[in-house]
Each structure stands twice: as structure tokens, then as C-alpha cells.
Task: structure prediction
Amino acid sequence: MRALFLFLSLLAAASLHANPAAHKGTGLSVELIAESTSISPGKPFSVGLLIHHDRGYHTYWKNPGLAGVATNLNWSLPRGFKAGPIQWPAPEKVKMAAINTHGFESDTLLIVEITPPKNLRSSEITLRTKASWMCCFRSCAPGFCDLALTLPVAPAPSPGPRADLFTKARSLHPLPASGWQFSALRSGNTITLSGHPLTPTLKIPAHPQFFSADNLICSHPDQLWSSSDGSFKAVLTISEMPPKNQSVLRGTLTADSGWLGSKSSKAIDIAVPVTPAP
Result:
């Protein structure tokens, strides 16, 4: 009887910890973290999937490109709670074997805003999500895990011990493309993106790169960039299986320095109507 009681106690303890906040998988570790110390009724707050990649490994952006699968979070929340979409940082150019793709090799925090109900009466809340990803180096390993994070309910939450990670992650999010005028011309299997600064203080940053948000542009071919009189042109190769009837070039421009000034964001989001060549 004592052995049975011990077994049931261990089983109950295991069930309490069946959804840990952290997980170690092939090529990476993931953890569900919160920006604040508690939840306040009716006030949105942020949580995030913190991904640490082992050396040489990467996971994928919202549009992986020619290969790969985007990281995903499938939430299971208490009644009345709502989860927003993943707030993606600007991607990096990564390789799956010899193929250029869109992803992350550096540590990455994927932020999600959670909105609790106004009539929240519980003393604490557990947030649960099923995380899935594809982690690649010389080969790829799909992975998934159940994560859970419990936070107390309080009238006025304060920043948590890892709030600085959220501040840093938001600094890597693309900004709207103010200060630039863009056009896009389609000819055959290419689209030429042209950009011109609207003020003389804005310069073309070093090593620009375009990342297609919806796979209109293929991730693998080299992009042909040129500049003249402060403006630039980038010849981009259309994917073999682009979205149907897509007439807007959507994506993120990255560079080694700021698009909106030397100390500004190194990434901007654009949505440029595509005009057929005459």
C-alpha cells in the first residue's frame, strides 16, 4: 500500500510538471518566458518563445524560402484569453545544405501579445502552447514540445527579470518604410525593385538584402544590387511557384546599417505594387 501511495504521489507530481516552460531538442533549446511578473485583468501583456541555437544550427522565419518550415505556436489558453500573431524579427540569410533560405542562427525571441479578459478572477493563470519548428545544420530535425507558463494575477504588473530580452527583440523588428519611395517592375521571371530616399540625409545602407514575406521572390538566387545618384535597384528572381495573382511585392529589407538613418533600424517592411514592364 505504501508503494502504491508513493507511485501515485510521483505520478501526480509528474503531471504537474508535464508541460515545463523549457525544452532541449536537437540543435536548439526553447523556453516560454514572460515580459512582466504577473497578469492584470483586461491589460495585454507579452510572452515569447526564446530560441537558443547550438553552433551551426538555425530555425526558420515566417517565410522560410525555398526550404524549411516556419516556427509555429499553437495556443491553448483559458476561457476569454486571446493570443496575437508571432511578432517576427528581421530574418537572416541561412543555408540549408547549399540552398539560401530565411531564418535565424542567433538567439531569437518570438514575441506574442496575450490579451486577458476584463473579468479575470483567478489568482493565477497557466498559459499553454505547442511549439513546433524545423532545426537544420547539415541535416534537418523537425521538433515540437508542449510548454506551459504560470503567472499570478495582480492589479499592476511590473517588468520581469527578463524584460530586457523583449526590449532587445523589439529593436530587431522591422519598421515601416517611411522616408523612401519604392517602385517594382516585373519583366519575365524577375522583379526589379527601385528605391529612392525622400530626404538627402538618408543613404543606401551597406549590404542590403530583400526577404520575401510570401514567397513571391525565390530565396536562393543571388540578388543583383546596383546604385546610382543615391538611388538603388535590386533585380529579384520570382519563385517557380509564387502566390497566385500576387501584384504586390511584400517583404523586409535588411542591411548592415540603418535604413532610416545611421542609428535607426537595420530592417524595414515594404509593400510595393508591381507594374508589368511595357
In short: The CA atoms of residues 28 and 53 lie 4 Å apart. The mean pLDDT is 92. Residues 18-170 form a domain with the Immunoglobulin-like fold (CATH 2.60.40.1250).
